[in-house]
Amino acid sequence: MDTDRERHRARETAFYLFTQQSLPACKPVLTPGWVIAIFLFMGVIFIPVGLVTLRASHCVVEIVDRYDIDCVPEPSRMDKVSYIQDDSIPKNCSRFMKVHKYMKAPIYIYYQLDNYYQNHRRYVKSRSDKQLLDGQKYHDTSYCQPVESNNNRPIVPCGLIAWSLFNDTFEFIREGAELKVNRKNIAWKSDRGHKFGKNVYPFNFQNGTLIGGGKLNPEIPLSDQEDLIVWMRTSALPSFRKLYGRIEEDLDVDDVVVVNLMNNYNTYSFGGKKKLVLSTSSWLGGKNDFLGHACVFVGCSSLTLAIIFVLLHVKYRRPYGDMSYLPWNRKSFSG
Amino acid sequence: MKRYVYINDNESSHELYCDNRISNRKYTVLNFLPKNLWEQFSRFMNQYFLLIACLQLWSLITPVNPASTWGPLIFIFAVSASKEAWDDYNRYLSDKKANEKLVWVVRQGIRKHIQAQDIHVGNIVWLRENDEVPCDLVLIGTSDPQGLCYVETAALDGETDLKTRVIPSACMGIDFELLHKIKGVIECPNPDKDITRFDANLRLFPPFIDNDVCPLTIKNTILQSCYLRNTEWACGVAVYTGNETKLGMSRGIPEPKLTAMDAMIDKLTGAIFVFQIVVVMVLGIAGNVWKDTEARKQWYVQYPIEGPWYELLVIPLRFELLCSIMIPISIKVSLDLVKSLYAKFIDWDTEMIDYETGIPSHATNTAISEDLGQVEYIMTDKTGTLTENRMIFRRCCISGVFYGNESGDALKDTKLLNAVAGSSPDVVQFLTVMAICNTVVPIKSKTGAISYKAQSQDEDALVNAAAQLHMVYANKTANILEIRFNGSVIKYEVLEILEFTSDRKRMSVVVKDCQNGKIVLLSKGADEAILPYAYVGQQTRTFIEAVEQYAQLGLRTLCLACRELREDEYQEWSLLFKEASSTLVDREWRIAEVCQRLEHDFEVLGVTAIEDRLQDGVPETIETLRKAGINFWMLTGDKQNTAIQIALSCNFISPEPKGQLLLIDGKTEDEVCRSLERVLLTMRITSSEPKDVAFVVDGWALEIALKHYRKAFTELAILSRTAICCRVTPSQKAQLVELLKSCDYRTLAIGDGGNDVRMIQQADIGVGISGREGLQAARAADYSIGKFRFLKRLILVHGRYSYNRTAFLSQYSFYKSLVICFIQIFFSFISGVSGTSLFNSVSLMAYNVFYTSVPVLVSVLDKDLSEGTVMQHPQILFYCQAGRFTVSLPFLAFFPLLYNRASESEYICWMVWSIFVPCNCCVCDHHTCLCLREK
């Protein structure tokens, strides 16, 4: 008796079940009813979600202005590269942006570069994270090639990415009054706190014969150089937007914003485009119709499939678990 | 080449032959690392990964941290190296234990206790009861006055019954003290691994009286790892030592078997490798072109005008490294892991425990479980595999009178009992042959009951039956047999034993009746080995009828015969026999020839019929597996009629209207050829009809067919779902397996005895039944089971699940690697074909190990269908086997696979870019979240 009960208990244990490959399990059987129900359910869920998403995306107001060609004076347009490389020519330029829809603060200002390969292997690798955090205390800057030192003194921050810092600047004027642009908190908090040193100051930067992009104020520590931090978070795609600042005032319909910009950055040599983007945000982020379209598409196709399956099911109804439908049984029926 | 062993001569043999140190180790401490690494690197996959890992050390081209390849690589190597090291260490420990065991050895005429490893060839070793034999010895003395001793050879051949060993005649009667000083020479062949042969000669030096050459056989030896039983002491001369013993020579690592799936994975790996090279070349060229046309314009990349000489190689090599993840490094480790679990599931399965003996099923080879699900042909032995191998004497026919026909049990037939009580001379003679024409050893227990130790189940059945019919084989002391019949004791002296061989198919003894001094030859054997040799004029018709009638009932028949010999005839023959027994070359053949001279002009006494019952569940198992599309072949040493009867009773073939048996027979080439062609023709015609057609072939015709008409026979083998091959030898069994394997069929061989070992080792999967014929087959097999019926569960449940799981796991491994690789390749096109890695080292490693490898291992518990469903509809297995097509056509299967993967990763890429890139612009602090790796 006793041993029987013990044996029974042993049989109960999970390990025994495991060794006998008989752990409790379930396997859904995809009967037509289930399949149709699942597709219907997916349709019912996805279509509203898609519509809501689309609506959110449509609420976002976005103004895009390409300025790289228009900001080059008419006579220089034949040879834009020598224009941009000539320091003696003033590079200021004014653009007018008409607000076609009410824009609620905060309005994000982005610059967008197209055909710019921040993801090029030579480019992405050319930086030293340790140096950005520790400054000149960190000596091994071999990763930074080819921009690692100048006149035998290290460059802080070293590397191609920092060297090619974007240096166009923008000012915004509405109805004669300057719009306040908040340029703080545009970089990731973690970057400011943990990746760029608080006591690391630019040193020997852009002192070489070959000047890349923008210069840095040597008085400000790297952790506060937010333009640099934003720039150094390299983009994965050759066409990207980077945050420049925020306008913390609402813009009304038909307001005209005058943008005074310094067109310093050279994208002309490789045919890149420069754009200025003003955009509001919704709970979903920026303007993005894809998510909504995708959801609606998935929802619609699920519904369609559900309907097709219902029709098929009604037309070719058959009982479940009928052995005679098994392929080997069928074969023997036909001969 | 021969070796001369000088007995008790310490000096001469030291340098010539090795000492008794046993070493099974593969490695030593010093050569472990290089040897093991060399072995591991002989695999293509490992070489490939090493190359990749080395390339990654070059920081100019490496896209990720070298640790992401070196880490897993070192891990994988460490795992397999430590497994090897552990196995080798255990081997070392067991060697050490054996080597340091103390044994008594004669040194300078005195017995000394020394370590087993210090035994040299020529030393005299003393053993006590229950000692293990340390090396191969030639017996020279035992405690038994007749020079007998008993050994248990279980470790050698798995047979648990005791075997008698006898000292050579030359050493007979040497007293205990003299054995220490004995001198002589043993002329023996060089070490080999045949444990059934030892053709040697012994000559003792003076002052021994008998210094003629004395022949030695395997009966005069005790081999390493046997145990001495029922004998107080024994001593012998070491002839083979250390790794040169018969056991040491036969030890060897068998070729590892490769499953169909493994072969497929290797092929797929090769195909992916080729594809990878193509991708690398395309991307490398594109990269160099893009660099020269576009990248030089991009001032922020600062491409130097003039690069180093290897500049053109840099980008292709970078892509090679990026694409190296296409071949999953984890697949080997994951597969080894799950395969060992499949094996464990087989060991653990309580439904495959033989409750009669308590023996669970066991998977010796852990690597081939999924092949069980791919079996197409099962080659099965008959005796002990389909049947129980428990022989029971049922009927007999003595000089034309049938006994046991009514009741089905001759032992209860009053006719026979009356005949025995009346001492009818024919019956007495018949019973005498039953009782003493054998090699059985009677053992008297303390209570006086007699039990028999027999090597063959048939002999056991006969002796026991004779005992029940009051002809009790009571005692055997040396050459004197004691028989008790109806209260009187009859003594016989055994003069010669002509042992059973599968070629002669009979065995005989020559005995001398101690009462009247008559010399008689007693024989028993298969009908065709006895009946044709009956003396001229004897009517054998009734015996032939009896044999046929018994075979129809599925009984095993033996014919018993005797012949009286004249004294001079025996003496003359005896000399010849002695000479034949001491030849060193072709001894077996010579002996057979000499035996032939004596075994003729028989007076046939009668026929015995022994029943061997079918095992439980055999017909159901065969029917189920047959439904699953598996073809059965029966390969048996038994005779045709018996085999056919057994086949009928276990659903192997169907009876007449539904089934049809086609016979291939003939004694000459022409006959066999004609018969083969006829069968082939019938087979072709009937192949479209739903009729069970089977062919039956015997050993002789098979020999000719395999030799001269191999092509026709192969065609027949492919056409025929069922075959019965009777009277086949072990090597023919192996040849048949080989034949089917060469037609690209997956074969499974199942058997229980020593004669099935070759077939089991030859087949893709060998299954041994741990039965009554010892463990020999079970040891050689990949799987051992207790009963034939477990085969159903082994194939349908374990084989099928293993196959499905491995298939899923390996497909998944390739799938996940290809997906991530294609994302990487598409990213290359938008990152200036410069070889930027989209993923950083940690994510990549985490993807390979934590996200995709470890969780997927859970699929080892996956069951697509319940066990009950599969058992009910075994046809499912056939559909599972359809996956086999991918084995022969890896390329056709491969390209759609690639195509799917490609579009899938395209889709994933597209989704990621479209959704997250713009979204994150605002969500994640207004930046692109998809950021590149940072160094």
Automatic annotation (TrEMBL), chain A:
It is found in: Membrane. GO terms for cellular component: endoplasmic reticulum; Golgi apparatus; plasma membrane. It comes from the Eukaryota. The chain crosses the membrane at residues 34-54, 290-314. InterPro entries: CDC50/LEM3_fam. Keywords: Membrane, Transmembrane, Transmembrane helix. It holds the Pfam family CDC50. Belongs to the CDC50/LEM3 family. PANTHER family: ALA-INTERACTING SUBUNIT 2-RELATED (PTHR10926:SF29), CELL CYCLE CONTROL PROTEIN 50 (PTHR10926). This is ALA-interacting subunit.
Automatic annotation (TrEMBL), chain B:
Residues 5-70 form the P-type ATPase N-terminal domain. Residues 101-162 form the P-type ATPase A domain. It is an enzyme of class 7 (translocase). Its cofactor is Mg(2+). GO terms for cellular component: plasma membrane. The chain crosses the membrane at residues 44-61, 268-290, 814-832, 844-861. The active site is at D381. Residues 778-888 form the P-type ATPase C-terminal domain. ATP binds at D381, K382, T383, E459, F500, K524, R556, T636, G637, D638, R727, K733, N755, D756. It is found in: Endomembrane system; Membrane. It holds the Pfam family PhoLip_ATPase_C. Belongs to the cation transport ATPase (P-type) (TC 3.A.3) family. Type IV subfamily. This is Phospholipid-transporting ATPase.
